[in-house]
Amino acid sequence: MSAQKWAVGITGASGAIYGVRLVRELLRGGHTVHLMITEAGWQVFRDELDWNTDDREALIREKLQQDAPGALHYWGMRDFNCPAASGSYRCDGMVVIPCSMGTLSGIAHGASGNLLERVADVMLKERRRLVLVPRETPLNAIQLENMLKLSRLGVTILPAMPGYYHKPQTMDDLVNFVVGKALDALDVPHELFRRWGE
Q1: Does 5 appear as a known binding residue?
Q2: Which terminus, N or C, of the chain has the lesser number of Cβ atoms within 10 Å?
Q3: Binding site annotation covers 197?
Q4: For FMN, which residues are the binding ones (predicted)?
């Protein structure tokens, strides 16, 4: 598969490891990644992964890029110079993983209140792939209605619900299942989990 250009958003929903693993896999595959992390996302890096986020650029190089062959570009949430914020840029699609309910609501209502929401809006208007990985439970009616609205627009709603038929043995196995499903939604080959029947 030839290298592609993907936008990835990481928000403040629990499950930051999903976003980290997805970025690593895309870069390992030689793809270009335009990465956006919300302030709450940075907080979850600290709270869930125990990462020191004082030097964000150094942290991204150390924890995400890891000498992978792909190209990683990190964009601040107010930096609308990001190429993916324009429909004329040939971005293959976007994944927001994990996706908070606040971000999902902003996307569903076309708020474009920050770079992440703007890039998602571009994916919608250009009819490109958009995958949202919400990590919340239980869900209220407003959240469900927002997901239904986006699904009707062609957005893939991919809740972070790991499978168990592949008999996971570790936490990594559970993370890899969800990330693998997100890569499947992008048609990006991977070997993160054993498929049913294999």
Answers
A1: no
A2: C
A3: no
A4: 12-14, 38, 100-103, 135
Task: Identify the residue whose tokens are 């840029």.
Answer: 89
Query: CATH number of the domain that 65 lies in?
Result: 3.40.50.1950
- The response to whether 12 counts as a known ligand-binding position is yes
Tokens of 25: 């896999």
Q: Is 86 annotated as a binding residue?
A: no
Whether 152 is in a domain gets the answer: yes
| Assigned domain for 116 exists | yes
Find out whether 21 and 179 touch, Cβ atoms under 8 Å: yes
Tens of pLDDT, residue by residue over 127-181, are: 999 999 999 999 999 999 999 999 999 999 999 999 998 899 999 999 999 999 9
- Find the domain containing 164 and state its range: 5-185
Cα-based angle 179, 85, 134 (whole degrees, multiple of 5):
30
The reply, when asked if residue 103 is annotated as ligand binding, is yes
Kindly state whether residue 45 falls inside one of the protein's structural domains: yes
Number of structural domains in the chain: 1
Tell me if the pTM is above 0.90. yes
- 154 annotated ligand binder: no
Residue 31's region, left for phi above 0, alpha for psi from -120 to 50, else beta, is beta
Question: Any binding-site annotation on 85?
Answer: no
The 10s digit of each residue's pLDDT in 65-121 is 888 999 999 999 999 999 999 999 999 999 999 999 999 999 999 999 999 999 999
Asked, for residue 95, whether it belongs to a domain, the answer is: yes
